[in-house]
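@here heads up, posting the sequence + SMILES for the S-adenosylmethionine run so it's all in one place. Ping me if the SMILES looks off, I pulled it from an old spreadsheet.
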Amino acid sequence: MLSSDRQGLQLFGHSPSAQKVLTHAVDENIFRNESNPAAQNDDRFPLAIRHVVGRGRGFFATRDIQAGETVFQAVPLAWAISEDWMKNTCWWCFAYDARRSQPVKAMSADSPCSLSAKTVTTCNKQVSANGCSRQTSFARYKGVFCSDQCHQAAITAHGGQEHWDNYLALLGAMEDEIQLHGSKVARSNKASAKLETSTSTLLDVSQSALLSEDDNKQGGGHCSEADFDPDDLTDEQLEAWIATVWDTIAEHDLFSDRLPDSSQRELVRLITNQLCLSDALTADRDNDLPIADWQTEMVARCAATRDIAPFEALCRVKSNETEVLRASLHQMQLAVPNSDGCASAPATIAPIRLPWNLSPAQLVESQWSSSFQDAASSYSLLARAWERAAKLGSLGVLNHTRFRNVYYREKANSFGIWDPPSDMLHLAQSTDCSSPTVGADYDEREWIGFSIYPTAVYFNHSCAPNVAKTRRNRVMNFVSNQSIQSGDELFISYGSTTDSVSERRDRLRDHFFFECACDRCIAESSIQVCNANSLF
Ligand SMILES: C[S@@+](CC[C@H](N)C(=O)[O-])C[C@H]1O[C@@H](n2cnc3c(N)ncnc32)[C@H](O)[C@@H]1O
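bot reply: prediction finished. Complex structure tokens:
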């Protein structure tokens, strides 16, 4: 997640071997396509996507830019409000009031249990008559909005009332699943507490699985017999392995007894929102519906002409799935015990191979990657909710490939939504002193959710950014904080820039899986080396 520093989320990056310079002609088309109805709007912005060695794609200035110019604006394609603030935050414009809930409570319109909060009791009877559970969350699940206009805009963005209802039904079904599985999870947690007393055994299982000759021989068609460093594995090898493992996970519904934590559940809600919006945009749309903004229009028109389906537009954003796996393999490699049973020092990194034929039981027991288990239990939760909600309304297809396509993009490329909206650290350095929030205490800001802006994900990071990110309602504004020459790259910061160089790099490595190579880090790390050398 960019600039949010949420704990517990693993984020993506390019490993050295994954650094490929790819040509994504369609990416440029998003910004420079004469037949694109939004092209005239794109020309408002003085930037273009180019490829840069070591950083992938990035935004570059197409003319000289003055300090204080808005260089880009983006609207979200999908979003999720934090569990803590769901009643206090408008589900469309992100207006937030910590003291009271938003005034417009919007249940789905034609569901028998959605007429209004007052009719819930009657509704539940009707729902029972229709064969639904009396305890169903469909009756109580509702969105909140600061105004009727925002409510209507959300319905419109979802492609109309029916799609909106399906979306709410899905969220409600997820709540039901969370409750239903609460007791099961409690039991399973007790069981895993017992298992943790024999952690070393489990670790051995995973490591012997990873290093087993036999296992690797059975998968010999996929990878060589030689020992290798995770960085030597090609993306194709990793992708093939991931697909095999996920097929097993889906087939046996593994990890269904694990409840994703609240941060994962928020991610699942963002994915739900993304999938519903994408399906709504690709489905037959009521042409009389007004379209909220030019980027949504662009995506909708592209879908209509089959140029870029909305879901495919998201898929142009970089996925970090293989990077997450590679990082997990590195961690395991470092933890492989030596002959004394102690973890070996990094200097003696153990060779590693992928276990191609893990049985379902081995997969569950090996505990070889917590990030992998997070993803699998999140998928299981969504799949169960999907099945439940599909009985009440028409939903698109859900399979693990589609889920992973979104999961490994959104968790890395989404922006945190904070309130007050402006990023204080950046504004303090910027010329935008007209903002009413300048001078407010950064620590008082509240994290109220996160959203994905697929058109804005091409800003690379610098610890000395030349662009500040500020939010006004749903719109993310990117404003230059210094003059920028034509041809220069535009950078934002993925979080605090006030830490030391080693703290900044550690954080970016841990959360984003990349080694920051910005000018400031390079300069400051060479000063550190000089200082260290001068001691001798
Ligand atoms: C939000 S994406 C930015 C767009 C990305 N370059 C692409 O091609 O899709 C963030 C990723 O870009 C790369 N990146 C961004 N800033 C970087 C930096 N300062 N040094 C090295 N890599 C960087 C890392 O791979 C990071 O995970």
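MO: The chain is about 45% helix and 10% strand.
MO: One more: Residues 12-14, 54-58, 318, 413, 457-458, 460-462, 512, 514, 516-518 surround S-adenosylmethionine (CB under 6 Å).
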